[in-house]
Amino acid sequence: MSPIINVQHLVKSYAGGDRALDDVSLAIKSGEILALLGPNGAGKTTLISIICGLTTITDGAVSVGGYDVVKDYRQARSLIGLVPQELMLEPFETVLSTVSLSRGLYGCKPDQAHIESILSQLSLLDKKDALIKELSGGMKRRVLIAKALSHHPKVLFLDEPTAGVDVELRRDMWRVIKELKQQGVTIVLTTHYIEEAEEIADRVAVINSGKILLVEEKDKLMKRLGTKELQIDLHEPISVLPDNLLAFGVQTSADGMSLLYQYDVNAEKTGISSLLSALVSEGIVLKDLRTYQSSLEDIFLDLVTMESS
């Protein structure tokens, strides 16, 4: 099956030669949720803006649903819904008229039943006659999503959709995103809340300094790059590690009351049993054991740090 979004060798340069995007290639599957992660200035918003036809291309090619975003702009743009970071809404319009106008701008016939269905899905139906200026920040962001869905798009871009939203609303949005996926909508999500990617994404793409560092299924990525750390709490502090413990790569905590040991959960031998035997032979008394699994945030930070160094 052909990807619904196909980015090939995309370059975006500005005056002076600075490159916001540097030879970016990315294929996004129909019906998937792709989390696009990267630090500020990495190129996330620039990439989305080019796909959505809001920023010009310096070099390369982008297609959506088989339509070139430059040559076949109208067809490509009709397949896309975009939820931007900024809360740009007319404050004296009602929720219903705001969303209905967006539908009309795409040349779609009025369909109040469809608009009300979207508002209901986003828990906005009881606010349909409210003025935008009367809504909270979280509700305004929901209106942006409703606007983006008003014309039945096949692809939805969410650029930092939960920025400034409280935890309860954030989790409610995760639910909505999962429901949209079940309806066959392809979703591309940029976020600073990496737990969002860990919660809802099918695949993760990491971008930094305008380059794609990695694109991989989230579960495989965490399994491949994730490590576990064993923390061994001691009855008494230790200041100097014996030589036979140094061989394991063990580190001590700042207060000397714990030993830290990293291991690969997929390895044939983790080395834990040998480490515990070495501790016993040294007469070190254990108080407690606990393990810590690397999160997607840990993996992301490692990738960005490695690429920047």
Description:
The protein has 309 residues and is of the alpha/beta class. It folds into two domains: 5-223, Rossmann fold (3-Layer(aba) Sandwich); 227-293, Alpha-Beta Plaits, CATH 3.30.70. Helix content is 34%, strand content 27%. The chain has helices at residues 44-51, 73-78, 95-105, 112-121, 137-149, 167-182, 194-200, 218-225, 243-246, 272-281, 296-308; strands at residues 5-13, 19-28, 33-37, 59-64, 67-68, 80-83, 155-159, 186-190, 203-208, 211-217, 228-234, 251-252, 258-263, 286-293. The strands form three sheets. Strands 6-7-8-3-9-10 form a six-stranded mixed β-sheet, with helices on both faces. Strand 12 (251-252) and strand 13 form a beta hairpin. Helix 3 packs parallel to helix 5. 32% of the residues are buried. The mean pLDDT is 88.
SSE layout and pairings?
Blueprint: E1 5-13, E2 19-28, E3 33-37, H1 44-51, E4 59-64, E5 67-68, H2 73-78, E6 80-83, H3 95-105, H4 112-121, H5 137-149, E7 155-159, H6 167-182, E8 186-190, H7 194-200, E9 203-208, E10 211-217, H8 218-225, E11 228-234, H9 243-246, E12 251-252, E13 258-263, H10 272-281, E14 286-293, H11 296-308
Parallel strand pairs: 3-8, 3-9, 6-7, 7-8
Antiparallel strand pairs: 1-2, 1-4, 4-5, 9-10, 11-13, 11-14, 12-13
Helix pairs in contact: 3-5
